[in-house]
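Human
Can I borrow your eye for a moment on a structure tokenisation matter? Give me a protein, with the fold worked out from its sequence. Write it directly below this note and I will take it from there.

Assistant
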Amino acid sequence: MKNRASDGSLVADTKRFPHGIKFLSDYMHARGLKLAIYGDFGNYTCGGYPGSQYYLKQDADLFAEWEVDGLKFDGCYSKVADMQSGYVEMGKWLNNTGRPIQYSCSWPAYDSKANYTVLREHCNMWRMYGDIQDSWDDVLDIVDYYYKNTDVLQPIAGPGNWNDPDMLIIGDFGLSYDQAKVQMAMWAIFAAPLYMSNDLRNIRPEFRDILLNKKVIAISQDPLGIQGKPLFKQPSTVRSRPLERATAHGLEVWSRPVSPVGSFAVVVLNRNNQGTPQVFTTALKDLGLTSKRGYHVEEVFTDKDYGFMAPNDTFTCYINPTGVVMITATIQNGKKEFVAVKPHKPWKI
């Protein structure tokens, strides 16, 4: 509700949640799902509902009583100068409840000088950029933000501490099929949480398949927890021209270490929105794949199997306009035979 109860407690909207939040939590848990709740450090949420300022302990205790599993803590109607102490304090009260609650902090989205060392210590994940809208331009804008801030963002990501580029808009209205694969692939390279923003009752099957692609999900949740980086140091060949850092009409290559150690996931992103698919040709070593043991290379979305490849071997693929090719390069034992990778359990944040 838009007002707290007389004792200061948050009150569930009786129309939207006629049985209360605890009932909803039990309903979700009975089906093997988890429930996260939205709150705000300020006086009000961004939607005008009561915020948690001056009620941090009381709200943390209530969230635990409702048995929620996650808290998305926004920063509307608050002072940037108060955020470090406030977000740290809320994290303390959540921990004191004794209930595991994933804590998502929005502090760096409001404060460009946020202390990421403090964030890593007190938050499980954090939004650090603007809200995504249902558009291809917004996906590229977030990719560019990660590129420009790689040196800051990449080292702080790891198991239990994640940069959050915002929700997946796959299955909504703003992305084509190829563009949807781009977002899924890039979010996996970012080691990002995969939160969907769509209507699962009406999602088209081709978008559903992208979201349920187990290979991409495994890359996103790889237990090493290492965020990917753009590759731009070693030249490759695109139609006989040197590969440059992505422009509005170019190719972009990113790489991320994955399990088993020595293996990588690589994305080739075609930002060009005109013409036919672009051909991308390079030696494997120019993608950072330099082990003499060699690799088993496979495309993630098409399941195309390139088999065993050595660092000097040539890799060629074709990328649709505003599309992506994503490969895994699994480290081998130096022989032309596939070494199976044992499946791993995804990280629980």
